[in-house]
Amino acid sequence: MAAEDPSVSGVSGRYATALFELARDEQSVDQVRADLDKFEAMLNESADLKRLVRSPVFSAGTQLKALTVVLDRAGISGASAKFLKVLTANRRLFAIADVIRAYRALVAKFKGEATAEVTVAEQLNDKNLDALKAALKSVTGKDVALNVKVDPSIIGGLVVKLGSRMVDSSLRTKLNSIKNAMKEAG
Q: How far apart are CA 94 and CA 171, in angstroms?
């Protein structure tokens, strides 16, 4: 399965494929995805956790002890916790972000979903997220999972990347277009 999807390759693809196949066999695909999402959110919020994951200075034993405490406090257990511990023991924890991305791609393919990367100026409410999902579903004909990133520098609007297509309706891009048009006219 990993060889069919170019976004799922290399070391991270092999680990993601192994985790996906295990989760599929245990019928825990959604639980593992939720656990990985939770771990990714913790990673994005904590500079210390990010340092623990990425720094080669920490031994595998030190990483494993610290990770075990973090996982216990976060309520991440089962296949997800075991998997993260295997990554740690194999000194591959630094690749977790790529593994999570590859796992999501495998789940989306398995469920017949498409995944869209959406960048917004401020967090969207549930009503707007549902409307965006519905609009993307009407275009693709598939359920669309959203990976939403908040980037205040786009000022307003949104940027949507879905497969090889990208729609940039951000205010920043529109202002830059006007600026360039004014330079050419003047």
A: 35
Cα-flanking dihedrals φ and ψ of residue 181, to 5°? Answer: -65, -40
Question: Distance of CA 141 to CAs 22, 61, 130, 134, Å?
Answer: 29, 47, 15, 10
Residue 2 binned pLDDT confidence (cut-offs 50, 70, 90): very low
3-state SS, one letter per residue, for the chain = CHHHCCCCCHHHHHHHHHHHHHHHHCCCHHHHHHHHHHHHHHHHHCHHHHHHHHCCCCCHHHHHHHHHHHHHHHCCCHHHHHHHHHHHHCCCHHHHHHHHHHHHHHHHHHHCEEEEEEEECCCCCHHHHHHHHHHHHHHHCCEEEEEEEECHHHCCCEEEEECCEEEECCHHHHHHHHHHHHHHHC
Strand 158-162 and strand 165-168: pairing? antiparallel
Q: CB burial class (10 A; 0-12, 13-18, 19+) of residue 39?
A: buried
Token pair listed for 43: 């990673």
Q: Is 0.85 topped by the overall pTM?
A: no
